[in-house]
Amino acid sequence: MISSKDNPKIKELIKLHQAKYRKETNTFLVEGKHLVKEAFEANAVIEAYSIDEIPGYTLVSLPVMKKICKTDTVVTEVALCKINEIKPLSDNILILDNIQDPGNLGTILRTAKAFKFDTVIISKGSCDLYNDKVIRSSQGAIFKLNILNNIDLLSFIPTLNDYEIYGTNVRNGTDIKDIKKEKKIAIILGNEGNGISKEISNIIDKNIYIKLDNMESLNVSIAGAIIMYEYINK
């Protein structure tokens, strides 16, 4: 059992609370039985730790687990995971332009997987993909998606030559109910407050919107869920 919070291995795990160490080591932590289970199923686990005796896990004391965890309620299991390898692009792509809220990002990832947008592109300047709130909100989707993180969208979007690319605009464009099903599609969701950046808007020529009744806009994660649902069920 590891009972000391000064154990070198525990100190290395605690460092992963900071984004710079996650980037340096290409690893991150997940907390809780459900996420650890998802990580194992994705073959992403390097090491697992528990306050209970479980075969294959490293046993740690409750004070050590409290030190490792960032959640208010201490969990019984955590896992050190490797960051996913990049895979070929799927036919349905979701592009995220400067999403800032970790809860929004995690929820978007969860709904992207649910509605078969299996590749997600996250722009430079978005919130940290491996923030603990993003991971919890994703409910394991982070292990099931092909995620390209910290991407220069101005360079990336023009490479999607065989995709129909749609921005989202609350005032101009085509009602999501009226667009046709495409062989390959990329849908861009913008920042919570400002929408898609002007620079990105300038390089795309198609927009979609959700028809609203006496409301100016929706939360980006809700809007994204509606758009993906409407599209995939055409």
Structural features, described:
- The protein has 234 residues and is of the alpha/beta class.
- Helices cover 31% and strands 21% of the residues.
- The protein has 9 helices and 11 strands.
- The chain has helices at 8-15, 19-25, 33-41, 62-68, 102-114, 132-138, 153-156, 198-201, 220-232, and strands spanning 27-31, 45-50, 58-59, 77-82, 92-96, 119-123, 146-151, 164-168, 174-175, 185-189, 207-209.
- The strands form 2 sheets. It has a 7-stranded parallel beta sheet. A 4-stranded mixed beta sheet has the order 1-4-2-3.
- Strand 5, helix 5 and strand 6 (119-123) form a beta-alpha-beta unit.
- Helix 5 runs parallel beside helix 6 and helix 5 (102-114) runs parallel beside helix 9.
- The model has no long low-confidence stretch (mean pLDDT 95).
Keywords:
seven-stranded parallel sheet, four-stranded mixed sheet, 234 residues
Shape annotation: elongated
Q: Give the oligomeric state.
A: single chain
N-to-C SSE string, H for helix and E for strand: HHEHEEHEEHEHEHEEEHEH
Q: Count the DSSP helices.
A: 9
Helix content: 25-40%
Give the averaged pLDDT, no decimals: 95
Our Rg estimate from Cα atoms comes to 20 Å
What is the end-to-end distance? 54 Å
Q: Structural class, please? A: alpha/beta
Unreliable segments of 5+ consecutive residues: none
Proportion in β-strands: 15-25%
Largest beta sheet, briefly? 7 strands, parallel
Total DSSP E strands: 11
